[in-house]
Amino acid sequence: MPWAWGADHMPPDLQHHFHRPILIIIGLFLCLVLIETVLLSAPPLYLIAGLVVIVAWSGAALASTVAALRSAWRRNVPQACAMAILPLVFLASALWPKPVIFGARVLGDRLHFAIARPRYLAQIRALPQTGQPRLAIIEWGGFIAMTIGVVYDESDEIGLPRSQQSTTWNDRAAGSELSCGYAVNAAVGDHFYLVDFGC
Description:
This protein is α+β, with helices and mostly antiparallel strands. It has two domains: 7-95; 118-197, no CATH class. It is 57% helix and 16% strand. It is built from five helices and four strands; from the N terminus they run ααααββαββ. The chain has helices at residues 12-38, 43-73, 77-95, 97-125, 167-173; strands at residues 135-143, 146-153, 182-189, 192-197. A four-stranded antiparallel β-sheet has the order 1-2-4-3, covered by helices on one side. The protein is elongated and about 75 Å long. It starts with 11 loop residues before the first helix and ends with a strand. The chain crosses the membrane at residues 21-40, 46-69, 76-96. Keywords: Membrane, Transmembrane, Transmembrane helix.
């Protein structure tokens, strides 16, 4: 069969066809990570940038679908398969968006924290010593029913089940975003936690 090449014997132009959709997919995902890293504290820009990436992905998927159909019509099976990669990944992401969103959030939030970590440590050092473990909340931003941010909890009780948290910890958390309900996404070291707040 004329198109049954091994990976090492694939013509350069065909390798280009396979590489291009993969690079586009990686590039678009990295755009989502960058949006999560940089624009989280500006919800309008965050939404606009996310929509731009989705529109760009949709356009690229549509163009690749047309190219795949043309290649299939010409019986160029390898090129048709290469061109089908992008629309298939787009379709899978549209049907099951959670893995893509979760992956972008995990990477973006950690990058955002890593960039801001020295500033957060300086803020914590500036807090008064009261003899009690310090608890500080740093909001990143969010939407109507959810806020995202960082919690510094010197006692690390935020990571415990609610039934095991002390009365003094609950007193310190009372009146803050933690009293609205929260979900700890990750412990990122030095008593810092990435948290979703319910308000």
